[in-house]
Amino acid sequence: MSTPHINANTDDFSDTVVMPGDPLRAKYISEHYLTRAKLVTNVRNMLGYTGLYKGKKISVMSSGMGIPSCSIYATELIKFYGVKKIVRVGSCGAVSDKIKVRDLILAHSVSTDSKVNEIRLNGYQFSLSSDFELMNKLFIQAKNHKLDLKVGNVFTTDSFYSLDNDLINLLRKYNFLAVEMETAGLLGIAQEYDIQAAAIYTVSDHIISNEAMSSDERERSFDEMIRLTLDALI
Ligand code: HPA
Predict the structure, then answer these.
(1) Does pLDDT of 219 surpass 80?
(2) Which listed residue (205, 216, 223, 231) is catalytic?
(3) Which of 2, 3, 44, 226 could form a disulfide with 76 if both were Cys (CB 3.0 to 4.6 A apart)?
(4) Residue range 166-190: average pLDDT?
(5) Which residue owns the Cα nearest ligand 1 atom 2?
(6) Does any domain span residue 7?
(7) Taking Cα atoms as reference points, which of 41, 46, 43 lies closest to residue 20?
């Protein structure tokens, strides 16, 4: 079987998926953390892999950038491949003074400038939060790994280059931690199909101070996030 965007066989995916935005991150995770990993889909180079992590079958599927791309892959994984748990492992830009580049953030809840969930709910505000059980497991693993995981509200935006200064100031006023571009899509879909989803990020840049990570730092903090996520999922 294949779907419009995934050319895997029916049983190729685990019910548990780790979802980075970047296809090369999916490749990296499969090569560095999974055993007996195989590439299961490569349509448009949106790579997906399945292998074993400490003996448990886990898949890694890239989402691409933005709500529409992420939503396509999440929906097809759930509807056609029986996926029940998705953890987005992404990057984000900090807006809060309490957050530094390299910090790890768990999205407790997300707000968004996208209309996608309001449309779902006939114009009413849709409250989006990570799945409680997944959040709990991620939080416990962060403690086990001695990592200071910050938990809070994150803003999903449709706009990378034209984010309005007034909006950034509002996000700061209301103590949002960071902005990113996919989670409101993923959590709306999880709610629609009654599956578990959560999102965790490394802070790649700070929107106020303009600080950004070196490529070395990117790799190190990405590894910390992946290890804790995989340990939370087994
Ligand atoms: N804006 C939106 N998404 C992001 C950013 C940003 O600054 N950094 C990482 N993901």
Answers:
(1) no
(2) 205
(3) 3
(4) 98
(5) 180
(6) no
(7) 46
> Do the domain assignments include residue 3?
no
Cα of 133 from ligand 1 centre, angstroms:
26
CA 163 to chain centre: 20
Q: What residues contact residue 136 under an 8 Å CB cut-off, 6+ apart?
A: none
Q: What is the ipTM of this complex?
A: 0.95
User: How many domains would you assign to the chain?
Assistant: 1
187 located within any domain: yes
Q: What would the two tokens of residue 172 be?
A: 């700061």
Q: Is 98 helix (H, G, I), strand (E, B) or coil?
A: coil
Has residue 54 got a pLDDT over 90?
Answer: yes
Rounded CA separation 30/52 (Å) = 9
Residues with CB under 6 A from ligand 1: 91-93, 157, 160, 179-181, 204-205, 207
**What's the CATH code of the domain at 93?**
3.40.50.1580
Question: Could you tell me the end-to-end alpha-carbon distance of the chain, in angstroms, rounded to an integer?
Answer: 27
- For ligand 1, atom 9, the nearest C-alpha belongs to 92
**Residue 159 Cα, ligand 1 centroid: separation in angstroms?**
9
- Residue appearing with tokens 């700061």: 172
Q: Where are the alpha helices (DSSP H) in the chain?
A: 23-33, 66-81, 116-120, 132-144, 165-173, 183-193, 215-233
Q: What does the block give as tokens for 34?
A: 């999974």
- Name the pTM for this structure: 0.97
Confidence of residue 217 (pLDDT cuts 50, 70, 90): confident
